[in-house]
Amino acid sequence: MKNVCFTIIDTIGESHLVEVKPYAYNSLMEFIVDELYEEIGDCMGRAWCGTCILRQINGRQITQLEPDEKIMLEKYPNPDKDWIRLSCQIEITPDLENTCWEIVDSRLIM
Questions:
Q1: Which residues neighbour 42 within 8 Å (Cβ) at sequence distance 6 or greater?
Q2: Do residues 53 and 12 lie in contact, with contact meaning Cβ atoms separated by under 8 Å?
Q3: Domains in the chain and their CATH numbers?
Q4: How confident is the model over 28-73, as pLDDT tens digits?
Q5: Is 62 exposed, middle or buried, given 0-12, 13-18 or 19+ CB atoms closer than 10 A?
């Protein structure tokens, strides 16, 4: 299976074009923590803490929210709520191809 290419924008606005094998990590959060930014994922991917929030900047909207993710995201006021996801709930699949995601510092919106 061919690698998936997408962009992650970190909390200081730096863009990282990444290429990763689909399903190489359990979630997008695990990839981000291992390769780019360690300051997210306090609950280790259980959708409990909200520290791994991403805002999708472009690309086609991916999979629907799971109930736990929806409950967690309702706690954070955000005008872009339709484009906000928990990275711990996103699988690295070919659906991520050519998407762009910004890491949201959840401490600033709590």
A1: 49, 51
A2: no
A3: 4-108 (3.10.20.30)
A4: 999 999 998 888 878 887 888 888 999 999 998 887 788 888 888 8
A5: middle
